[in-house]
Amino acid sequence: MTRKFTASLAIAFLATLILFDQATAELNPYQAPPAFAFGSGLASAGGFCGALPQ
Amino acid sequence: MSDAAAPTREVTAFEGFARRGGLVLALLIAIALVALFAGGRFGMMLAVGLGFGIALEGLRFGFAGPWRAMILRREPAGILAQFLSIGIVSSVAIPLLAAHPGELTGAQAPIGWAMIGGAFVFGAAMQVVLGCGSGTLVNAGSGNPVGLLALPFFAIGSFAGAYHLIWWTDLGSLPIATLSGWQGLLVTWAALLLTAALFLRLGRPDARRIPRRLVIAAILLAALAIANLLIAGQPWGVVYGLGLWAAKGFTALGGDLSGSAFWSAPGTDRILQGSILTDYTSLTNIGLIAGAFVTAAWRNGGLSQKLPSYPIGAWLAVIVAGFLLGYSSRLAFGCNVGAFFSGISTGSLHGWVWFVAAFAGAFLGVRLRPMLGLEARQ
Hints:
Chain B: Keywords: Cell inner membrane, Cell membrane, Membrane, Transmembrane, Transmembrane helix, Transport. Chain A has 54 residues and is an all-alpha fold.
């Protein structure tokens, strides 16, 4: 068995994750923020590993 | 050269061209789909993540490996390349954060007992699996079975660590301390130079030069990390996204998160209800795995390497170490990316404390790895 098998499993994992996500959450590009946070004037609101809960 | 050999080589060249063309096309389609259905910012974040994966795998830039090389063989080049990349990012990030507060945020977190202990455990665990936050994702994408097995347990550990985060931080922590503005940048540069000088002094004289490949990788990573900050408004991170994936799975199975101050907080709940294709760290994590896969598949014979054979105890050790990587990195407010790379480059003092604690843990991890059956005993 070679890395082709395990690398394919990693891609299958990603595909499953995205399919599961799309089955449980909706996307709406019309509610998307501006392309760049820099210069947008909006407060940063993404999740980050260094942040305490808000 | 025989007549029969020529068409065979031609077909092989065509197959290689088709394979590489297909890989590039698949990446462009993925970026376009995310931009179209989620929004332009999210498409760009996937592109940044793919860039991270391609740069790390393609130029063999890592964190765990260079730390191991320094500890075992006194080779400082890889760590010096890490400092170079952090220094470049800090030159842009620290002044920008001072000029655009709120719009841009740094990887700033408090120093505390759990943070120091978490960083120590992370440093040990990343030497056991020879993969850090970014390294585990890149290894999984390039078909390394250790990285692939560690990844889901890394995600579960990150979820569990965040679940208990407030209990751990209540053990005691200092207010957040940052190096900001031009003075903060000068202090960061001075600290990076002093630390680099220390590693140069401790390193073997014949192993001090940074290879060109690592210099290029350090510059590329810095450019991508700056792009991450400008697009997302926050620095490059890894472990938050992994915990989010596990949290989504937990709730889909009927799990209740109301008992966790972290996962039930309004800001976190909003992200939990949304798609991972609108979460920055999830997008860069997906890009890291996919970018590493594409880079490995791009190389002729890149995925033909045989899988290693380890005793069952070694695989169990990978599972435990994977969980500990996730759990400890939440207590430490980040991994080698979120705390060390992004913390120091955005002026957070916790990044420096993380580095000292994690490097001390790496000494333990280097010794644990052969004992756990993951390499020949020395």
